[in-house]
C-alpha cells in the first residue's frame, strides 16, 4: 500500500470537512496555522465525541489520530515541519514550558467556547515531542442516571440496592477505558437524587472530570503533597456519609477506603481489574487482609464498553461472522460505512457487566452472580447491537 502524502488524510475518506482548508494552509506554511489547527482539533474532537487526540511525529510527518468509541482512528497527516509549532501552541495554552523538549510535561487547557477541560501530555520521542490530549468528560451522551448506563437488568438491580446502604464499599472495576468513572458519576447522581440533599456526599478525584451537583468534589494535587491517602484522612473528619474515591491505586488508599467502609461510610470507588474475582484477588495481593475485604466490600461490578453498530450495519452470517469466534448465536449483523460513523461502522458504545456480592459470613469468595461479561456480550451480538469481532477485541477469546 502506498504511503499517503505528508499533507493527505490518513485513510480513504479524506480529512473531515473542518480540516480540508487547514491541510492546504499547512503545506503553505501559514503562520497562523498552528493556532487555528489546535482550535479546530479541540472543537472537532468534542463534536465527534472523541476521548483523546494523539499527535505523533514521524520521519516525515505529524500523524494526528483521535480515539472514537475507544479505538484510535486516523484523522489527518501534516508536514513534519509544522509539528514544533503545533506542540508550542499546545504548551502555551496548557501553561507548559515551551523551551523544554527533553522532559515529559503535563498541563491543562480550559476551553471557554466548549466549556470543557483538556489534559495535555507531552513526551520526547526519536522524531520530536509527542502530544496526547485527553478531553475530560468528553462523552456526547448524557448519563444522568443509572438507567442511562444500559446495564444488564440484574446488575442494575443489585447496584441500586447497594447504593441505598449506609456503609460498605462498592467497587466498579475494569481496565482503562472501560467506563468506570462514568458509572461512578452515575452512582453519585443516583444517590443525590434519592437522598434529596439529605446525605453528606464528597469525592476525592484525580482529576475531577465532571462536576456533579450536590457533591463536594476535591482534586488531589501531587505538587503540594496532597495525595489520595492524605486527602482521605482529612476528608473523614468532615462528617461524610458517602465518599467517591476516583481510583484506588495503592495499598494506603485502599486501606483507608475500606476502613471508612467499615466505620459508617458508603464508599464508591473504581479499581483496575479484569473481572470481579480478579478485583478481590488484587486487593489481597496488595496486602489488604481477607477479613477486611470480606467485611468492607458489599458489591463488585466489572464492566466493559463495546462499540455499537451504526445504522448502516447489514445482516451477517452467524456461521461466518460469529461462531468461528466462539459466539453461539442464531443471528448477527456486520458493520457498514457512512458519514454518521466516520466510515468506521460503529457509533457510540454500550456496556456489558457482571456483579459479585460479598458476604462476611462466607469464608470463600463466591463466583460472580448471574450473567457474566461473556454471556452479556453474546446477548448484544444476538440482538444486533454489536459484532462478534468487537466482543473478541474487547474481551478476548471466550473461556473454554
What this model shows, in words?
- The structure is a single chain.
- With 400 residues, the chain is α/β, with parallel strands linked by helices.
- The chain has two domains: 17-135, Beta-Lactamase; 146-395, Rossmann fold (3-Layer(aba) Sandwich), CATH 3.40.50.
- Helix content is 31%, strand content 26%.
- The chain has twelve helices and 15 strands.
- The protein has helices spanning 17-27, 33-48, 83-94, 153-163, 180-195, 228-235, 251-262, 276-285, 290-296, 318-321, 373-382, 388-395; strands at residues 52-57, 61-68, 71-79, 105-111, 116-125, 128-135, 168-174, 201-205, 216-219, 242-245, 266-272, 297-309, 314-315, 333-334, 346-357.
- It has a seven-stranded mixed sheet, with helices on both faces. It has a six-stranded antiparallel sheet with strand order 3-2-1-6-5-4, with helices on one face. The protein has a two-stranded antiparallel sheet with strand order 13-14.
- Helix 6 packs parallel to helix 7 (251-262) and helix 7 (251-262) packs across helix 9 (290-296).
- The radius of gyration is 23 Å and the shape is globular.
- Mean pLDDT is 88; it is low at 1-12.
Amino acid at each position: 500500500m502506498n504511503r499517503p502524502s505528508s499533507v493527505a488524510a490518513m485513510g480513504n475518506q479524506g480529512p473531515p470537512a473542518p480540516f480540508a482548508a487547514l491541510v492546504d494552509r499547512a503545506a503553505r506554511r501559514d503562520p497562523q496555522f498552528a493556532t487555528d489547527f489546535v482550535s479546530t482539533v479541540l472543537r472537532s474532537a468534542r463534536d465527534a465525541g472523541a476521548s483523546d487526540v494523539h499527535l505523533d511525529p514521524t520521519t516525515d510527518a505529524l500523524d494526528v489520530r483521535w480515539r472514537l468509541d475507544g479505538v484510535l482512528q486516523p484523522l489527518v497527516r501534516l508536514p513534519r515541519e509544522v509539528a514544533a509549532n503545533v506542540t508550542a501552541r499546545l504548551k502555551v495554552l496548557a501553561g507548559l514550558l515551551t523551551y523544554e523538549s527533553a522532559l515529559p510535561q503535563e498541563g491543562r487547557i480550559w476551553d471557554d467556547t466548549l466549556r470543557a477541560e483538556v489534559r495535555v501530555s507531552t513526551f520526547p520521542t526519536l522524531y520530536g515531542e509527542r502530544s496526547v490530549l485527553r478531553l475530560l468528560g468528553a462523552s456526547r451522551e448524557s448519563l444522568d442516571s443509572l438507567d442511562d448506563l444500559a446495564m444488564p437488568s440484574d446488575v442494575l438491580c443489585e447496584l441500586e440496592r447497594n447504593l441505598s446502604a449506609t456503609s460498605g464499599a462498592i467497587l466498579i472495576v475494569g481496565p482503562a477505558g472501560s467506563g468506570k468513572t462514568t458509572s461512578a458519576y452515575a452512582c453519585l447522581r443516583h444517590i443525590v437524587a434519592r437522598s434529596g440533599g439529605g446525605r453528606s456526599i464528597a469525592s476525592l478525584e484525580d482529576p475531577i472530570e465532571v462536576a456533579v451537583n450536590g457533591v463536594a468534589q476535591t482534586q488531589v494535587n501531587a505538587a503540594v503533597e496532597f495525595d489520595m491517602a492524605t486527602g482521605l484522612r482529612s476528608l473523614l473528619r468532615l462528617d461524610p456519609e458517602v465518599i467517591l474515591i476516583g481510583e484506588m491505586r495503592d495499598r494506603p488508599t485502599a486501606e483507608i477506603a475500606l476502613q471508612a467502609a467499615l466505620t459508617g461510610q458508603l464508599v464508591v470507588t473504581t479499581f483496575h481489574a479484569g473481572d470481579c474475582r480478579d478485583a478481590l484477588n488484587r486487593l489481597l495481593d496488595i496486602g489488604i487482609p481477607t477479613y477486611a475485604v470480606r467485611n468492607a466490600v458489599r458489591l463488585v461490578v466489572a464492566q466493559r464498553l463495546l462499540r455499537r453498530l451504526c445504522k448502516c450495519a447489514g445482516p451477517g452470517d452467524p456461521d461466518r461472522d460469529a461462531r468461528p469466534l466462539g459466539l453461539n448465536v442464531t443471528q448477527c449483523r456486520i458493520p457498514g460505512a457512512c458519514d454518521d460513523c466516520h466510515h468506521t461502522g460503529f457509533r457510540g458504545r454500550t456496556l456489558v457487566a457482571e456483579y459479585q456480592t460479598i458476604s462476611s459470613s462466607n469464608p470463600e469468595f463466591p463466583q460472580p452472580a448471574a450473567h457474566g461479561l461473556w454471556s452479556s456480550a453474546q446477548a448484544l451480538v444476538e440482538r444486533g447491537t454489536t459484532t462478534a469481532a468487537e466482543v473478541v477485541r474487547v474481551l478476548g477469546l471466550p473461556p473454554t
